[in-house]
Write a structure and sequence with these properties.
Layout (H helix, E strand, L loop, with lengths): L3 E8 L24 H10 L3 E5 H8 L2 E2 L23 E5 L5 E2 L4 E2 L2 E7 L5 H10 L2 E4 L7 H10 L5 E4 L3 H9 L5 E6 L27 E10 L5 E9 L1
Parallel strand pairs: 1-9, 1-10, 2-4, 2-9, 4-7, 7-8
Antiparallel strand pairs: 3-5, 6-7, 10-12, 11-12
């Protein structure tokens, strides 16, 4: 058993992810206000946890980085349940164990971090001291099936939001683990080749990470200030 996964993202009309690069609103609206519908829809979806990659956390929260290269891997890798006091939980995929947590939450939400079986006892000790829950997802930290099964069986999550970034979304796509796509289109453009998009599978040129999957449009809704919300269901072929 595993949770339902809804990939919930906001992009420019050309699918780019870096909001600081998007053209400004035509009506003079403060750009930060334009992101509010994304969080409103997130609340409507009612998932109790959201998943994100460590790179996004490093950029958005400017956390310190743990020097994992100084330490040897631990001998025992067992799920640890830390503080679970907040209404929602931030699940962070941090395979190498890089993030140093100043306290027990990210943006006000308690944390579960998903690790590889290569992290050190020293790092695990840091997590326990801060009240951070952790689970393990195989040798490389990206056995996504195992991670989802643990989040279902050990933490009771039956629905999760996948908030990226694009590389993490790409891993879930390749494994066929995205059940729905909730995509808000911001009325602006980036336009530069190579800028991160909402789904970025880092594979070889001959790979097709979406093979065996198809999208059914569930709904289209025009929101305020020219934002459009597209809601899709994934089908396995």
């Amino acid at each position: 058993m595993k949770p339902k996964v809804i990939c919930h993202m906001m992009s420019s009309v050309d699918g780019r992810l870096v909001a600081d690069r998007w053209t400004p609103p035509f009506n003079g609206m403060i750009q930060d206000k334009m992101y509010e519908p994304y969080y409103e829809i997130s609340s409507e979806l009612k998932a109790r946890a959201w998943m994100i990659g460590n790179n996004t956390i490093q950029i958005d929260n400017q956390v310190e980085i743990f020097d994992y290269s100084k330490y040897v891997p631990a001998n025992i890798f067992k799920t640890h349940i830390g503080k679970r006091e907040t209404e929602k939980t931030c699940i962070i995929f941090d395979s190498k164990g890089k993030i140093i947590y100043p306290d027990d939450n990210i943006n006000g939400d308690n944390v579960i971090t998903v690790l590889s079986e290569r992290v050190s006892d020293e790092y695990l000790s840091h997590l326990r001291q801060k009240g951070i829950s952790y689970i393990f997802a195989g040798n490389d930290g990206y056995d996504l099936h195992k991670a989802l099964e643990t989040l279902y069986s050990e933490f009771g999550y039956d629905e999760l939001l996948l908030d990226g970034g694009g590389v993490l979304n790409g891993k879930f796509l390749k494994e066929g683990l995205i059940d729905e796509l909730s995509l808000l289109i911001y009325p602006g453009v980036d336009g530069l080749s190579g800028v991160s998009s909402i789904i970025e599978y880092k594979g070889k040129a001959g790979e097709f990470p979406a093979t065996g999957q198809a999208l059914q449009l569930l709904s289209v809704k025009q929101l305020r200030d020219g934002i459009v919300w597209l809601h899709y269901q994934f089908h396995r072929l």
